[in-house]
Amino acid sequence: MTPYTQSGTWRGLVLATAVSGTLLLLAGFAGAIWSGGSPLAMLTHIASGVIGDAAWRGPVIGPLLGLLVHFVLIGVIVNLYVVAVVRVPALGRRWRLSGVVFGALAWMVLAVIASPRDWPPSFLALTPREASVQILLHILLLGLPSAALLRRANGWRG
């Protein structure tokens, strides 16, 4: 069994959410700029999934709500991984493999959640290359850092 402490688990959850959330946000900003958009519009689009078109009515509320929603979603997703690791200690021991699987699964969950008003969901329109890049980014920027930070926060070995 992988030993864990409540304080280490909370520390890992907060660190993983902050680090992975920031890394994914920066990647999203880069993608938005690369495709001719803006980071503020990207955040407003995130907020529009929660409050609809009202997110676009003000220059501040949309981006701020989008930022909050982004970090809350990442926190919930990371917490699901934390619960899985606490209940299945082998995931903590094989943190690299579980981080890869977690990142890929997180992309799937977030892809469905991220477009609640779109039907069919926008991720279905991605080319295989675009989907592969997004999955890889979620593995590298969410799955592996979360697994590593949770492991380190608890002082696990292996």
Any overview of this molecule?
This protein is 76% helix and 0% strand. The chain is mainly α and 158 residues long. The protein is built from 6 helices and no strands. Helix 1 runs antiparallel to helix 6.
Low-confidence stretches: none
Total of DSSP H or I helical runs spanning 4+ residues = 6
Report, as a whole number of angstroms, the end-to-end distance: 12 Å
Rg value:
16 Å
Structural category: mainly alpha
**Number of DSSP E strands:** 0
DSSP helix fraction: over 70%
* Main sheet characteristics: none
Could you spell the SSE succession in H and E letters? HHHHHH
Strand fraction: under 5%
Relevant terms:
158 residues; mainly alpha; 0% strand
